[in-house]
Specification:
Number of domains: 2
Low-confidence stretches: none
Number of helices: 2
CATH topology of the largest domain: Jelly Rolls
Largest sheet: 5 strands, antiparallel
CATH class of the largest domain: Mainly Beta
Structural class: alpha+beta
Order of helices and strands: HEEEEEEEEHE
Mean pLDDT: 79
Strand content: over 45%
Length: 175
Amino acid sequence: MARQSLLISLLIVTLIVNVVLGIELYTALHQSSKPVSQVPLNLTGVQIITTTTSQKNTTSVTQTTTQSITSSLTYNFSFKVKFHLKVDQSGIYIIGIKPKVNFSSLYVLLYFDDGKTVSLNLNITSANITITDKEVEVTAYIYGSTNENLTPTQIVNDLGLYLQFISPVSGEGED
C-alpha cells in the first residue's frame, strides 16, 4: 500500500512539473506574438551641439498673355544632437521617424555609442537595430529643408522619432 501511494504521489508531481514546463515553453516560443506598439521617444535631455540654418529664396517669372509670379521660401537646416536612449530590455528594435511637418528633404543619421549607425530619410523611415545596453548614448546628425522657419528644438520634436520592441536577443555573439 505504501508503495502504491508513493507511485501515485510521484505521478502527480511529474504531471505538475510537466504542466509548469509546458507553460514556460509556450511563453518562450510565443513571446513575439503579443501586440507591439510604437513608443515615441521622450527626448527631454537633448543637447543641440551645432546649428547651421540658411534660407534660399526662389522667384520665377513667366510672361505670356498673363503674368504669373511664383515665390517659395525654403529654409535649410543642419545640426548635431546628442541624447540618451533608455530601454527596458536588450533586444531587437525598430527605430524610425514619422515627420509631423512637411519637410522638403530630411536626412537623419544616428550614431550609437557602441558603433552602430542608422540612416533614415523621407523614403526610408525605419530600420532594425540590436540594442544590448539598457542606456545608449546617441549622436544624431539632422539636415534637410522645409518651407517653415523652425528652430532645431522644433525640428527634433517634429521628427516623430520612435522606438518599437521586436524581440529579445536570442543568443550570444549576434549583432
